[in-house]
Amino acid sequence: MAQQQHDPYQLLGVAKTASQDEIKKAYRQLAKKLHPDLNPGDAAKAEQFGQVTAAYDLLSDPEKRRRFDAGEIDINQQERPERQYYRAHAEADPSARYEFEGGFDDLGEFFARAFGGRASGGSFGERGSMRMRGQDRHFHLQVSLIEALTGAKKTVGLPEGGKIALTIPAGIEDGKTMRLAGKGEPGLNGGPPGDAYVRVEVLPDPVFARDGDDIKIDLPVGIDEAVLGATVSVPTIDGRVNLKVPPNSSSGRVMRLKGKGAPKTGGGAGDMLVTLKIVLPPKADPALEEALKAWRENHPHDPRAGWKGGRR
């Protein structure tokens, strides 16, 4: 197993002054190379992928990044033990005697907690092995937009084999992180296990696009449907519905389907915004051309009248 790196900047190959866009770009490039789905059976790449995902989870959050840069937490977002001890005394009376409180009954246990060792015999007392919490694990999971909107059952593969099952809640947004309590690395000496953190990436959909709680879709309509009006079948995330296109509808007209958008956290759903796109026949139609020529001669119409671009 590769040795774990402790600097998220080095893991992502970015400078400490990198912008959020630079960090995201670096992560996406590495994820494409190391993703377990692209490297089946390669435990080393799977471990690397987990490390860069953990680094991105840390640096993509401004508050977590600030705390890491200040030395308050490590790459696994765990409070640094030595800071836990000194913070308790930061505002104490300088002349006061420093007591090893809250479980630090002797120097042996303090150094064991601070530096990841164990309290043992000798001058530091005899306290035996310490119970230590397991490290957290970080994963990256890609889901389709439909799965993100409607919810799904998924699994995450582990580097050493095995899988973690999880439920994607309906309405989850791109970039959200799910916490699975107790699904991280096992603890040491009977300590509790760490947690698993799964960052969800929502893949683009060829038909639907999400905009907050709303869903957008472009609907192709024929010139006859736009001029005369029509009832058109429209796909939604939970089945097809009929949409009435009013007569004399221009391309670009937006129509709203109430409650057909993304599920909201507090209940209900957003709307679906349907944009009409007039599509002409694939081949020239002489009959259509003659009809339009006759119409143009008798009904002069300037489609750019009132258009701001016409005055430039």
Automatic annotation (TrEMBL):
One GO MF term: unfolded protein binding
SUPFAM superfamilies: Chaperone J-domain, HSP40/DnaJ peptide-binding domain
Superkingdom of the source species: Bacteria
A cellular component term, taken from the record's GO annotations: cytoplasm
Location of the region described as Disordered in the Swiss-Prot/TrEMBL record: 243-268, 292-312
InterPro entries membership: DnaJ_C, DnaJ_domain, HSP40/DnaJ_pept-bd, J_dom_sf
Sequence ranges of Basic and acidic residues compositional bias: 292-305
Domain J: start-end pairs: 7-72
Alphabetical GO biological process terms: protein refolding
PROSITE patterns given in the database record: DNAJ_2
Gene3D superfamilies membership: DnaJ domain, Urease metallochaperone UreE, N-terminal domain
Name of this protein: J domain-containing protein
Organism: Martelella lutilitoris
